[in-house]
Amino acid sequence: MIAAGVAATIGPGPRRTARDGQRKSDLERIRSELEIFRNTSTAMSYPVNLTALGMTGGVPADPMAGRIYGYVPRPALCDGTSTNRCTTYVLCAALEKVTGAVSVCTTAGANCTEPCSYGTQSP
Fold first, then answer.
1. When comparing pLDDT for 5 and 42, which is higher?
2. Residue 70, pLDDT score
3. pLDDT (tens digit, 9 = 90+) per residue, 48-93?
4. Which of 21, 35, 78, 83 stands the most exposed, by the fewest C-beta atoms within 10 Å?
5. Is cis: bond before 73, omega within 30 of 0?
């Protein structure tokens, strides 16, 4: 009962900020795993999907139900083999507190359920 009263007092702003912080942290963790995957892959390729990373505990999920993190390996139609390597990627999330979309997500066509507003790409 007290916890509900505290949560109501805090309001949605701090919760949005906390979820956005979690999204940024998740993307950094995934980015790190992508680099490890590529560097240990015999094909020297990024994976074709995030599930292939085999992360302990699974790939982090967006803290809000119905939202996903977008991941698009490049070039288009790469399959992760040594003859058709995925040499770059775009990884993005839809933040709740935003001022505009991040072009790296929107121009790369990353698959987010909301417009991407925070993203990273391979070095």
1. 42
2. 87
3. 999 999 998 999 999 988 888 888 898 989 999 999 999 999 898 8
4. 83
5. no
How many Cβ atoms sit within 10 Å of the Cβ of residue 117?
Answer: 21
The Cα–Cα gap between 58 and 65 comes to 16
Tell me the C-alpha distance between 66 and 55, whole Å.
Answer: 21
Distance in Å from the first CA to the final CA of the chain: 48
Which residue in 123, 99, 101 sits closest to 112, CA to CA? 101
Question: How many helices and strands (H and E) does the chain possess?
Answer: 3, 3
As a dihedral over the C-alpha atoms of residue 73, residue 29, residue 21, residue 70, rounded to 10 degrees, the angle is 20
Bridge partners (DSSP) listed for residue 84: 81
Tokens matching residue 43: 């094909």
Distance of CA 46 to the CA centre of its chain: 14
Residue extents of the structural domains in the chain? 2-121
Task: Give me 31's structure tokens.
Answer: 């980015």
- Using an 8 Å Cβ cutoff, are 29 and 58 in contact? no
